[in-house]
Amino acid sequence: MKRIFWLSFLLGLAVYAAMLTVTLPTLMEMAGGLAPFDMRPMGYSEAEAVELLAALGPEGRAYYGDVQHLLDLVFPGAMAVALISGGMLLIPRPWFWIFVVLVIVAKGADYMENAAVASMLSHGIFPEVAARASMFTLVKSLGDMIVYSWFLLAALLAGWRNLRRGRTAR
Questions:
Q1: 37 DSSP assignment
Q2: Taking Cα atoms as reference points, which of 5, 37, 21, 3 lies closest to residue 121?
Q3: 2-16: buried (b, 16+ CB within 10 Å) or exposed (e) per residue?
Q4: 118 contacts: CB under 8 Å, gap ≥ 6
Q5: Dist CA 170 CA 152 (whole Å)
Q6: Tens digit of pLDDT for each residue in 89-146?
Q7: For residue 16, which of 59, 108, 79, 109 has the smallest C-alpha distance?
Q8: 35: closest CA among 17, 21, 56?
Q9: b or e along 18-31 (b: 16 or more beta carbons within 10 Å of the residue's beta carbon)?
Q10: Residues near 86 by Cβ (< 8 Å), separated by ≥ 6?
Q11: 117 to each of 20, 60, 75, how far by Cα in Å?
Q12: Measured distance CA(65)–CA(94) in Å, rounded
């Protein structure tokens, strides 16, 4: 399980690094400094979505849909596998299943956000699609905050327990 955790975590980290250092800055540049949908954790209005798509133009929309979404196809899945496999090692069973549900909700919302954004990139803005994309962004953001915080806390507690065991063994 540790091997699965580390492989999926490193894959997710590499993809995230590529998004943060290449695709998202490129999209911001193409949009005249406007943040892409993926970088708006509090969501966005229909007017903000229209403004971003207009600023991106056809070339920026194509880059978003092709390059960014290709990376964002891998990232949520890799991180879901990392969180769940790591959670199996760190989180006690009754709580682990709640954690799994939260991971699925957060990463599922990420995929649903991507689908709604892909629709806006291809077909333009429709009020219900923009509202749905924004809602999925909010769910993803809140879910990610919860699961990453929970995972970090579980890892810190496991480290603390191991440290204490090492001291008492002496």
A1: G
A2: 37
A3: eeebeebbebbeebb
A4: 65, 69
A5: 28
A6: 999 999 999 999 999 999 999 999 999 999 999 998 888 999 999 999 999 999 999 9
A7: 79
A8: 56
A9: bbeeebbebbbebb
A10: 5, 9, 151, 155
A11: 18, 13, 16
A12: 40
Render pLDDT for 48-92 as a digit per residue (tens, 0 to 9): 999 999 999 999 999 999 999 999 999 999 999 999 999 999 999
Nearest in space to 159 (alpha carbons), one of 81, 84, 90, 93: 90
Residue corresponding to tokens 């290709």: 70
pTM (global) more than 0.70: yes
What dihedral do alpha carbons 19, 56, 64, 126 form, nearest 10°?
130
What 3 state SS string does 61-113 have? HHHHHHHHHHHHHHHHHHHHHHHHHHHHHHCCHHHHHHHHHHHHHHHHHHHHH
CA dihedral 78, 82, 83, 86 (to 10 degrees): 170
Residue 75 CB: number of other CB atoms within 10 A? 21
Residue type at 139 in one-letter notation: V
